[in-house]
Amino acid sequence: MSGLAPLDNAARQPLLDEDFLARVERLSLLSRATLTGRIRGTRRSRRRGFSTEFADHRDYVPGDDLRYLDWNIFGRLDRLFIKLFEEEEDLTVCLLLDRSLSMDTGSPNKFRYARQVAAALAYIALGTDDRVGVYPFDGSMGAPFKPVRGRRNALRLIRWLADLEPGSGTNLVESLTSFASATPGRGVVILISDLLDPAGYTDALRVIAGRKADVHLIHVLSPQELDPTVAGDVRLLDLEDGGAVEVSINPRILATYRRTVEEFREGVRQACSRFSITPILTSTELPFDTLVLDYLRSRRIIG
Fold first, then answer.
1. Element (H, E) at 157
2. Is residue 71 domain-shared with residue 193, that is, in the same domain?
3. Is residue 283 domain-resident?
């Protein structure tokens, strides 16, 4: 699954244009996770605390803050109750971005596509005051864009993504293990990758699934990887390890290749189901804004 990496004219354009930004202005990331952010933000938590919106009462016990006594109930029932409120807390969104050389292929280019998706999701999350961090990786986890909050940081994050260069080979397990050991387990984790690692992807998915978080996979392949049109005698190069093989492409070989790709994608679906990861399988042939605005909304990842 290697290929050429022609220079896409779109690579010179901004990752996100103003029209797209206007269309996502009121969207937000949706999470099933129980949020345990450290400060109050804009999301309703399942925890009860002392915030702004009334939720329930409980009996007073010595040591409770007297400011939260409900004197109206005391006047009616002659009993002391403490008022409870819904806590609104921040959500941490971690975007794991594959920058290995296998991503820098295809037309449209997979790496640019992945950065566009990451930029879009970051912009949406920052608009609802979530914390957002981006974690690029190839053979290891690279220097991250550490989590920030607020739309005021969106332009800086998008510029950082635009300047991010492809790396080297792929080591999914090492990279994602490094991420998992260094970051809190709650929130939302979104892995954007082609999963093309000679060692496989199953153990890597298991690593990030073993967390108290909503985990999503955006599996990106190019049209050329899904349905190649090459024919005749060709020399295939592995961009990551430099290996090469000469093959003669005929209809039977192409049919076998397409079956192998479909088995690969089906294996990804099954692994995600086993680890409770939401899989989004896409091709760069699908415009990234359609992926975000239509498909991710239909899957209730954003709304």
1. helix 154-163
2. no
3. yes
Are residues 236 and 248 both part of a single domain? yes
Q: Are 217 and 272 in contact (CB under 8 A)?
A: yes
Rounded Cα distance between 125 and 132, Å, is 7
Residues 78 and 177 in one domain: no
Q: Does a cis peptide bond (omega within 30 degrees of 0) precede residue 198? A: no
Q: Give all strands (DSSP E) within the chain, no chain letters.
A: 40-49, 53-59, 81-89, 92-98, 131-137, 145-149, 187-193, 213-221, 232-237, 244-249, 278-283
The answer to whether residues 101 and 110 touch, using CB atoms and an 8 Å cutoff, is: no
What is the span of the domain harbouring residue 132?
9-35+90-298
CATH label of the domain that carries residue 203: 3.40.50.410
Neighbours of 276 (CB within 10 A): 9
Say whether both 119 and 20 belong to one domain. Answer: yes
Query: Rounded to two decimals, what is the model's pTM?
Result: 0.79
Identify any residues that bridge with 188 across adjacent strands, giving them in sequence order. Answer: 93, 214
CA dihedral of residues 4, 242, 117, 209 (deg, nearest 10): 140
The residue type of 256 is T
Element holding 182 (H helix, E strand): helix 172-182
- Using the Cα atoms of residue 232, residue 238, residue 242 and residue 245 in order, give the sign of their dihedral: negative
Per the structure, the count of domains in the chain is 2
Amino acid code (one letter) for 93: V
Q: What is the pLDDT of residues 140-198, one digit of tens each?
A: 999 999 999 999 999 999 999 999 999 999 999 999 999 999 887 778 999 999 999 99
In b/e form, how buried is each residue of 229-261, taking b as 16+ CB within 10 angstroms?
A: eeeeeeeeebbbeeeeeeeebeeeeeeebeeeb
- Tell me: do 131 and 198 sit in the same domain: yes
